[in-house]
């Protein structure tokens, strides 16, 4: 629960940083502005802190598994992290689940929605069959996004103000370009 509060706090900080207009938005060709304004450092720091929190959550679950405790949820039942770690350890999936995938899935709001879906679909079942996974619509979407099959990173459009060569490509004046705001 403490990790969840810390994570929500970090997400709010990152959203505030990303939501505001920065000098790099106004002058995209002046890449040094993100360093001068400190925005890049603040975003990297927020990302690092969130990653540390998620690492702690996964490590805590792994430690519990090593000590023979298979349940970590407050209810005493297996939670989503336990299920994902069990699948990771089994190695039976066509696409292996990495710790990075698990961390991407367990963001608080996403995790709550996935847990609710898993609980609803598998209510009363003792064993999970691979065929049952087809009933987990939201869970499959989260997995696909996590694996990069359907990227969740938003793209924004910008119009160039002048002709310019970029990485060997000529970008003409008034050309619409897509910018990945997460990079």
Automatic annotation (TrEMBL):
Keyword Calcium found: no
Cellular compartment(s): Membrane
Swiss-Prot/TrEMBL keywords: Heme, Iron, Membrane, Metal-binding, Monooxygenase, Oxidoreductase, Transmembrane, Transmembrane helix
Gene Ontology cellular component list: membrane
Annotated GO MF terms: metal ion binding; monooxygenase activity
SUPFAM superfamilies in alphabetical order: Cytochrome P450
Cofactor dependency: heme
Membrane topology qualifier: Single-pass membrane protein
Database matches in Pfam families: p450
Family: Belongs to the cytochrome P450 family.
Name of the protein described by the UniProt record: Uncharacterized protein
Species classification: Eukaryota, Viridiplantae, Streptophyta, Embryophyta, Tracheophyta
């Amino acid at each position: 629960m403490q990790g969840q509060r810390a994570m929500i706090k970090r997400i709010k900080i990152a959203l505030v940083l990303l939501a505001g207009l920065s000098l790099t938005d106004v002058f995209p060709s002046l890449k040094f502005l993100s360093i001068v304004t400190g925005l890049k450092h603040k975003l990297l720091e927020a990302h690092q802190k969130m990653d540390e929190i998620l690492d702690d959550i996964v490590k805590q679950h792994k430690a519990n598994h090593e000590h023979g405790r298979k349940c970590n949820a407050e209810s005493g039942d297996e939670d989503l992290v336990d299920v994902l770690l069990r699948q990771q350890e089994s190695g039976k999936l066509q696409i292996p689940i990495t710790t990075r995938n698990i961390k991407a899935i367990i963001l608080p709001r996403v995790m709550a929605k996935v847990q609710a879906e898993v609980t609803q679909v598998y209510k009363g079942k003792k064993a999970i069959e691979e065929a049952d996974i087809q009933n987990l619509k939201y869970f499959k979407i989260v997995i696909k996004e996590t694996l990069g099959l359907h990227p969740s990173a938003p793209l924004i459009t910008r119009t160039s103000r002048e002709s310019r060569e970029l990485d060997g490509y000529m970008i003409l004046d008034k050309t619409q370009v897509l910018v990945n705001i997460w990079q």
